[in-house]
UniProtKB/TrEMBL annotation:
GO terms for biological process: tRNA N1-guanine methylation. One of its GO terms (cellular component) is cytosol. It is found in: Cytoplasm. Residues 1-226 form the tRNA methyltransferase TRMD/TRM10-type domain. Homodimer. This is tRNA (guanine-N(1)-)-methyltransferase. PANTHER family: TRNA (GUANINE-N(1)-)-METHYLTRANSFERASE. Its EC number is 2.1.1.228. It comes from Halalkalibacter krulwichiae. Specifically methylates guanosine-37 in various tRNAs. It catalyses: guanosine(37) in tRNA + S-adenosyl-L-methionine = N(1)-methylguanosine(37) in tRNA + S-adenosyl-L-homocysteine + H(+). It holds the Pfam family tRNA_m1G_MT.
Length: 248
């Protein structure tokens, strides 16, 4: 996969792409990251990429020209490709694990990081394919959102994680929050690991994990439960959770 990022502050990405799993993914040939300063494509001697909005109002608006030209530049080696061109903005679709999984199947992503009051509307109307928001809050720019998308998509690429099941069983990938984890020692300061995890009985362990995953989701993110189709065993577990909670 190739991920291009258009930003006015490319230096922000050095630490992110030069560390941990993202660095290993690029070193292993699974993904290529390229950060482009779209200020370099401004068509004026002062490299100005924003201007006052038509009709008046507060703030400055990013001009269409530098962004269009920067996108054309990063596509010049493969002009026939159809990359997903993603605008990072508060008005976009809420980013989810499902969206990350969808984007991980693409060959080329272009992430546009905005600043100031917003973008010239022609960028939205005639250039981008997706608009994404990482949450219902406003940041100074799209860089942090682009880092989040790049990270969440990269870890889903085949061969990136040491254990291919890790991404599959992560919170949200199954529609539920992940079950609790424990490691050595089996007892620490009187706090014990659940006996079932020490039993070696794989079927019982899997059932415990499924139940605990459902229980944690029921407690912390009931909205996810409402969006999930439950089987009969899960419905029975939910009833047990309710009964247990009424006992306290």
């Amino acid at each position: 996969m190739r991920i291009d990022i258009l930003s006015l502050f490319p230096e922000m990405f050095k630490g992110v792409f030069g560390s941990s799993i993202l660095k290993n993914a690029q070193d292993g040939g699974h993904v290529t990251y390229q950060v482009t300063d779209f200020r370099d494509f401004a068509d004026n001697k002062h490299k100005k990429v924003d201007d006052y909005p038509y009709g008046g109002g507060a703030g400055m608006v990013l001009r269409a020209q530098p962004i269009f030209d920067a996108v054309e530049h990063v596509r010049q080696n493969d002009p026939e490709s159809k990359p997903r061109i993603i605008l990072l903005c508060p008005q976009g679709e809420r980013f989810t694990q499902k969206k990350a999984e969808e984007l991980s199947k693409e060959k080329h992503l272009i992430l546009l990081c905005g600043h100031y009051e917003g973008y010239d509307e022609r960028v939205r109307e005639f250039l981008v394919t997706d608009e994404i928001s990482i949450g219902d809050f406003v940041l100074t720019g799209g860089e942090l959102g682009a880092m989040i998308i790049a990270d969440s998509v990269t870890r889903l690429l085949p061969g990136v994680l040491g254990n291919e099941e890790s991404a599959i069983t992560d919170s949200y990938s199954t529609g539920l929050l992940e079950h609790p984890h424990y490691t050595r020692p089996a007892e620490y300061r009187g706090m014990k690991v659940p006996d079932v995890l020490l039993s070696g009985h794989h079927a019982n362990i899997e059932e415990w994990r499924s139940r605990e995953s459902l229980k944690r989701t029921w407690k912390r993110r009931p909205d996810l439960i409402k969006a999930k189709t439950l089987n009969e065993k899960e419905k029975q577990w939910i009833k047990e959770f309710v009964d247990e909670s009424n006992c306290y």
